[in-house]
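hey can u check if this looks right to u? its 546 residues, i copy pasted from the old doc so theres a chance i mangled smth
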Amino acid sequence: MPEPDDGLFRRLQACRTIEDVALVVGEALNVAFAAVLDGRPPDDAHCLRCMLVLYPSGAFSDLLIVDASGKLLEKSPDLKPSTSAWARLRRGDGAPLHVQVADMEGERRAAQTVARLRGRQTTDLLAWPLMKRAGDAVLGALTAEFRINVEAPPVDALLEAGQAIAAAVSRVAFNLPSRDLLAPGEGLPVIGQQTLKIVRLLRAFSQTADTLLITGPSGVGKTRLSAWCHRQSGRVGRFVSVNLATITDPTMHGPHLFGWKKGTFTDAKSDHRGLVAEAQNGTLFIDEIDKLDLATQRALLQLLDENRYRALGATADSEARTRFIVACNRDLGALVAEGRFLSDLLYRINQCPIEVAPLSERTDEIAAWIDWFLRASRPDEPNPAEVSPEALAVALVQPWPGNLRQLESVIRRAEIYARLEDAEHPIISRRHLEEALHGERKHGAGGPDGRLMTLLEEAARLMAARIADPAGTLTLEHTQAWRGMVMLAVAHLADDDVAEAFHRMGRGAAVDGRNHLRDLRREYRRVVSFYQALGLSPPVPPDGVQ
């Protein structure tokens, strides 16, 4: 396999999707062919279109078609690749292939292929095998369809021109998603090589009713992946998420999941639907499933087996039309051996196990995640912060025990340092990043309490600088908005259910007195004032709070 052209390889490395690769390859092939055909009349030999066909694992995956003008074409029955050429490439020794359509006329089972090629005015087909290394199995093909009207076309030169391009494509094409996996708003802004495998599995399983088990360390993105899977499913119900660690009383796990009736226990001042009912016809994501007590595990197992459950204090069962995704960061098999997790429940939820690798094993994603964090935190910022190459080099070699959650925390802190020095054109230097990492380590190697204190200290320092600035727009009274921001965050964790949020904050009495919306409106006004003083758009509140 020839060495790929460095310039072309760099352009391909910058591609985020397989469609981007196809466009770069189409342009490169056209340039290479133009050099070979230089001086010849267009009627002598003309490249009509190029195709990039991927067959990883021996099964068709993607077909990308680029016409002579460099435009990506829609797939259609008339633009299928040649199965005959593909069969020849797979049987070959890794060499490129030239097929004249006229020579295929008498081939068995080639009639449809010939008809399609002739309908596309193709006389000659050039094809290059795609394989990860020389001698490996052929996993795809790069093809070019020509209309040739001369007896001695420069086919060998054309094949040679495409060899280096095919070599470059082989090094990147099998690690990239298609654009439909990266559609805006899909919730997966970064997909690296390992995550791509997970995304493809999730897309397939999203169409089933099977329970998914997602394992991996804290902060790797299990909730984000689950929400994406729900969106792919087409379910009309909501995506509801709960982290059992946020429900500190284990005896309340079952009531929160299945609901309760008024008067069932001391604080049950009104009926509570439960999370299963909230996710009806949708998806319920249960994080840290290992924290469930055995009684609730039995109730969940019965629900998964029978699609029925009973709220605490209810006299009849309710039907569940809910898809479950559960997650944990512990070894459930070990918990079964210790008698702390039901083996039957493990068998039931382990139908589609998916393991998410830590960020330290997904270093191809780090630069893109940093870029996304910087832009997502300030979507209206005309001058988003940038990261210097030296700072990025430091980030790439960190162990990141807190994974994406820790990376985001460190980058946000480093951005604060950079903006304190240059608010107009902030650039995160190596010093800024190392200071942010030092603050993280000082408070417990990225533990949640340490991260919280570090962020609060940095926010207080930045607020103090703005309040002390005579030309600033902030006053000490604006710090009252923090209370409202925390309350809005709890409401967000409760999927904008304000009553549920107040219960989680220990303010159930306000719900009983029907004062919870009024209280949150008051705090929200302070949040709005704070954002307006900063010249920013305030967050959208839950329904009924505006």
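DSSP finds 21 helices and 15 strands in the chain.
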